[in-house]
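haha ok so turns out i had the wrong file open the whole time. this is the CORRECT one, sorry everyone. sequence first:
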Amino acid sequence: MKKLRILVLTDHRGHQPSNSVYAIVRALAQHPSVHEVFLASRGTPANAAFFENRQLTEIHALQADSTTDWEAGGARFAQPPLRVDPRDMDLILLRLPPPLNDDFLRFLAHTLDERRVVNRPSGILSTGSKAFLLEVAALCPPLELITDEAALLAYIGRGPVVLKPLKGYGGHGIIRIDGPDVWSEGGHLSLEEALPLLREGLDRGGYLGMPFLRHVDQGDKRIIVVNGEVVGASLRVPARGHWLCNAAQGGHSIATEPDEDELRMVAHLNEVLLPRGVLIYGMDTLMGDDGHRVLSEVNTSSIGGILQSVTPAGQPAALRTAELLVRYALEVAA
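then structure:
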């Protein structure tokens, strides 16, 4: 049986002990169908030709094993001892934190066999904006794409709403508006005070608008799916006095499971995402005003929450993720 060579692309500079890339790498390195696993960072200066200049060249990497783990400062990434050619790999796993450069994704899509890259760069490009939710709008609360000031002012006059920057991530830049009152990362503002901020968002591409759901305090559920299979779920609850559930915004998470409505959402999303080569995604749901959960987000780049999750059978999500990735890579290599 073929033994796989796997390259994981990441950026160590923002890593914390909770980052799941190390658990996934350890599991891959110990899998009986894997020969070698390499870990390369966008933060390694010698890799600038690949990540920044978009030159298909050998990149500097570490060889991973069962002991590979996070370390403060990431000194070992300064001058990794090995050089590897991405074209020689059976699987390339993208674990690059946002923001992801669209030109870099297009470079990967045009120079590598996309079937060997997870998630497929062209798939990330077609799903990486909040506007992707418009393709699956039946699963979501009512949505509105807002790209100019006239449309913005008309929309916020309809009642309490939330505006999400189309290229936003981690809860950053989300704005809640209720009549003359506006809440953003900077705190409470009047609508008049917030207009310059709102115009900046329009200049950066616009917003996806949705109603403010009154049961948001019941939490934001993150469901992680790998190659069509749910490998974990967690319920992220906002901090006291806050309405955003993201960990980056002070929320905390507890283990949970998807309900029947959410499993139907997974089935629908699989039909849309798998043909695009999106094997790993995180979907977020909120409690709708009718008491049923609705889709509020789909993340297809660097999905968080894997390390903290377990499968319905009790297996660590990182371990199951590695197993499913190996299965996929063997199918492609066959």
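The first helix runs from residue 21 to 29.
again sry for the mixup
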